[in-house]
Amino acid sequence: MPKSSTPSRERIVAGAADMISRRGLSATSIREMAKHAKAPLGSTYHYFPEGKQQLATEAVRFTGEWVARSLSRELEAGPAEGLRAFLALWRKIVVESDFHAGCPVLAVAIEEPPADEVPPALAAAAEVFEQWEALLAASLREHGAEAEQAAQLATLVVAAVEGTVAMCRAQRSTKPLDRTAGQLEALIAGATRN
Fold first, then answer.
1. Tens digit of pLDDT for each residue in 70-112?
2. 3-state secondary structure string, 69-136?
3. How confident is the model at residue 2 (pLDDT cuts 50, 70, 90)?
4. What would the pLDDT profile of 5-44 be if each residue is shown by its tens digit?
5. 57 with 120: CB under 8 angstroms?
6. For the whole model, what pTM was predicted?
7. How far does Cα 32 stand from its chain's mean position?
8. CA–CA distance, 30 with 16 (Å, rounded to integer)
């Protein structure tokens, strides 16, 4: 994070994403997110006048774009390489946080929304998952998978990796990632054979 006397909007968003990845959305207040980002609460409300839900929405989008940039770069070498990079990214997060952090997008997605309402952060989480799936599906199609198979496999990859990250945190082990990686790599190899 940049070091300056005035907290940047991006630093606050990145701090919020990290905090949500550790504690979930309901268990995290905007005050705690500001403190975690080493930002005054006033600055946080200046950038996010609509409060916690606006900041959480931006944190989800920030994470989504950060992962999508990395995934896009790695998918240029093919879907297997993209999968390995996707798994490596989440492995690094869970290991470096000593199994305390996971995916803020998933954390927001599993929160129970108010009745008859789709909060903006939840809508953003759905868009992020769709973006990751679309990137994976496009790479699979480019490497020989049929369109429907590519879409199904992309959904499976995102769902499996997100679920596996949660399992790693619970078990305090990367073994679930290792097991999932092997099976997903085999499925991708089977789908992209010509």
1. 999 999 999 999 999 999 999 999 999 999 999 999 999 998 8
2. HHHHHHHCCCHHHHHHHHHHHHHHHHHHCCCCCCCHHHHHHCCCCCCCCCCHHHHHHHHHHHHHHHHH
3. very low
4. 456 899 999 999 999 999 999 989 999 999 989 888 998 9
5. yes
6. 0.91
7. 21
8. 8
- Assigned token pair, 77: 């070498």
Report how far residue 117's alpha carbon sits from residue 125's, in angstroms, rounded to the nearest whole number: 15
For residues 46, 15, 163, 95, the Cα torsion angle rounded to the nearest 10 degrees is 180
Contact 57, 65 (CB under 8 A): no
Environment class of 155 (CB within 10 Å of its CB; exposed 0-12, middle 13-18, buried 19+): middle
> Using CA atoms, how far apart are residues 143 and 20, in angstroms rounded to an integer?
36
What Å distances lie between residue 122 and 127, 169, 177, CA to CA? 9, 22, 25
- Single-letter code of the amino acid located at 64: G
